Amino acid sequence: MKPAPFEYVRPRTRAGVLAALAAAGEDGKVLAGGQSLIPLLSMRLASPKVLVDINLVPDFSALKISPTHVEIGPTVRHQELLTSEAVRKAVPLLAQALSYVAHPVIRNRGTSVGSIAHADPSGELTAVLSLLDGVVTIEGQDGTREVTGSDFFLGPLESAINSGEMATRVTFGRLPTTMGTACVEVSRRHGDYALVGVCAAIVLGEDHQIDRARISLFSVGPTPIVIDVSGILKGIRIDSKHWREAARFIASSVDPDGDIHATTAYRKNLVEVLSKRGLQCAYQNALDRVAVKQ
Amino acid sequence: MTTRTFGEPILRREDPRLVRGDGRYLDDLGQGAYEVAFLRSPHASARILEIDASAAISVDGLIAIYTYEDLEGRMAERLPLLIPHPSLTAGRTGYSLAKEYVRHVGEAIVMVVASNRYIAEDAVGLIEVSYEIFPPVVGIESARAADHLVHADVSDNISAHMIQEVGDARSEIANSKHQIVLDLEIERSASMPLEGKGVYAVWDSDAKEMRLWSSTQTSTGVRAAVAAKLNLPLQKVECTAPDVGGGFGVKIMHPWPEEVLIPWAAQILNHPVKWTEDRREHFISSAHERQQSHHVEVGFDDDGRIAGLDVTFFHDNGSYTPYGIIVPIITSTQLLGPYKPSSYRVEFTSLYTNTVIVTPYRGAGRPQGVFAMERTIDAIANYLGMSRDKVRDVNFIQPGEMPYDQHLTFQDGRPLIYDSGDYPASMAMLKKMIGWDDFEEYQQLARLSGRKVGIGMACYVEGTGVGPYEGGFVQVETSGRVNVSTGLTSQGQGHQTAFAQIVSEELGVPIEDVFVETGDTRRFAYAVGTFASRAAVMSGNAIALAARSVREKALRIAGDALECDPRDLEIIGGVVQVKGDPTNCIPLKTIAVLSNPLRYAFDESAQAATQFAVGDTSKPPILEGEEPGLESRDYYSPLQSTFASGMHAAIVETDPETAEIKILKYVVVHDCGRLINPMIVEGQIHGGVAQGVGGALYERMEYDENGQLLNASFMDFLMPYATEVPFIETGHLETPSPLNPLGIKGAGEAGVIPGSALLASAIEDAEGFEIRKMPISPSELWQLRIDHQNGLVPTLKIGEKQK
Fold first, then answer.
1. Does B279 touch chain A (CB under 8 A)?
2. pLDDT tens-digit profile of B322-346?
3. What pTM was estimated for this model as a whole?
4. Chain B interface mutation, best of A261, A274, A275, A277, highest count of B Cβ atoms under 10 Å
5. Do B401 and B504 fall within a single domain?
6. Are B117 and A2 in contact (CB under 8 A)?
């Protein structure tokens, strides 16, 4: 379990990183936290010829919280995002989802942007990006572009980033105070990838009635699956029948693969159970946020 | 007064070194040694047609490439069958590098030596092997069908078949008022130490001596095996087990192919060579255990008393049988636990499959046996509508019946006679600790709020401290330092603490003065190894005996020096003194000086022992029958094993929607005789319970029909984290063993044994339907609920109550 030979470069500037990536082309790979990449290298499941270590670029580690946005640089660690009170207030779903990401030792090294760029459909943050329509800024030597939410994910471990490019920023808008969110998942062990996970967001309208309800499923398909259930829940206050109806609708819309840890049928059941729990929890959080606001 | 050490929860003395990173594990040794990587079979069953290493030859840093064709003499012969048995009629072992055929994914075919492991792996990647691929045998059913064979000359895939019978179980069952039939399955798991195997060898071409380190549970065994394979005199091979990061059984198996290949290469290349196993190698080329399927028939009366028990089981032994049939023998003999059925018949068939070999993993066949027995007891309780504890009670061997002869032959070839134990007392303690009698009320309350909770219990008896023997050496230096050594190895058991406690107590010296060394053939050459919960019993008693004779000699010499009767002397705090007159004394270190009459004084203390300073000139300096030095060597060799016992109980909660299984409470009552160090015993129990929970709820070896292991990594082989292991409450009972001087029994494996039986019992109680197969995952439990709703899984009486 030793990596195949590779060239290692560690530029100190953004321009240097982009130049190195451009030079390496398809043979290059960005090394940020390394929590997914290093095991792949050690097992020789990936053998990039050039590793571009971006950890020395100073402005890559910036976490900016403005009145309207949260901007996450590519070397911001999960732990920083998870423990930032300002982030928790601006985009509560980030902390809600990150608390499920592995263990402190991994969160201390692993980066949130890297986790999104890795495009693992089991990653909690991929579902967060899709649900909240976060924006990924992709840079290469030829220029910069922005990709929003679900459009970023093309398949398992496959994103809109082309060779020679990297994700230099992920931006989330501050959530409206009428929105409540939640992340729930079932994993085999604490910190494992979810068997099924659900991020949910509910926006309240007038008189605390539901205006909008969406969920984003992870570990269910090749990319995060966003499903809008506003049609079922709009105008609804508290009634368990409607939660169940929405959850059943969600479960009937998906067909997760079975594997050694769980069957398709069980995963479908989890989609239903967790959708119900996620929506209920998001609704409660929305009520709480509105109450605090008042 | 001296401070007592035996029986005290003294902090482990080895821990400060180990937790600060000062441990020296195998891979910490041998900087600068050549390193080895193996090309291992990607196929479960195949013939090797051609090996083409031409592309690898040009790799910079490559030293050598070896295949079977390069092996000569004894190296070209099969690896030894370590434990032959008359019932093992078709025992087969492999070669250290595959000869023509490979029989499981992971079997070593080519050994590559390079200047480091990276380069060795690069070269392995460039070697091309072509194969003729055969359909493999995977799983017990496929082995029994024998449509394909693992070994061409074993036409039914059966390596061994064995029957033991006490009384006429079949007719007793037939004549019983009630009968039950059960089919019970346990899947594969593995020892999975954090440190894999590893070997480092240095050949001294001047002295023609092999110096060898292995991450092993038996350095004496590895030494003997290497001497035999390399045709070297035993005196020219020395083996040390350095710090070993866990064994759990897999490292008692020896010699592993690498343990003979690495020294062989070191000798040929005349350069130090090292191999450190990586995790994937450990998964596919070490050993697994546990997979068995059992058919149980039992006959009993209205009180649940078992008249006849008839167990037939199939054991999957993997591709070879180098460690014999120890595992199924242990299942078949330890299955009975604390119970006394009037008659018992057990029959097992051990089968070859194209999978990794099976050798003992902590518990070694007992978890399966206990699963079969305890599930049977629970089934009887359900059938009769009796409480599960009551059925256990009526079948217990009573304390007054000890020693109790089960009339079976144990794994050591000796009669299975329980030496001591008090099972009813253990049960009483267990029920109190878990709150057994109050649980039903809690269960009903929980049910009202939509929660599913269940309680379970499981009992076991464990034969520990198997022979043939271990030895101990105790030596007092003139500085007062007490050196202790024993031949068996340590891999986390706390021997440097527990053995020092024994010597401190027996000799009357401060524990700080006692230094323990284990697993080094240069220090102690006669030993068996650390397995079967035997180290404390075997080496502990040997060391105690050696310490006692050192004490005797010290008192004799002190008696001469103090001109008094040795019987009037005692040793306190390292000083021999006259009882009641502590001023009349002589330190042990001075006795050590006097015990070794010298010609030369090399320091101040030695002057006291030189020829013009001491001695009765009418006698020789060393008396007849005496030896110089204050030291002794002794051995402990028991007539039979000593039988520890225990009972676990747990409360679980299962999620009504997701079928997730959570352990709310876990209690252990444990009786391993006199405790040397209760903290170490509890640590052993905690680690064992963690593995028991792993085996019951998380771990399995996921082979597909092609014999590929699909989960050969820590990402997919789910060992429980600390977050999955419950808080463990432990109650100790101390029923001393009458068999050994210290009255102790083994504790190493206890914690793991009842895990699957216990959690199946508790989950069953929560769910109200039968659990017959372990481990169980939420996905499987959820499916069982559906099958149960569809009438495919029988409802239990507790389940009928829930309706």
1. yes
2. 999 999 999 999 999 999 999 999 9
3. 0.95
4. A261
5. no
6. yes
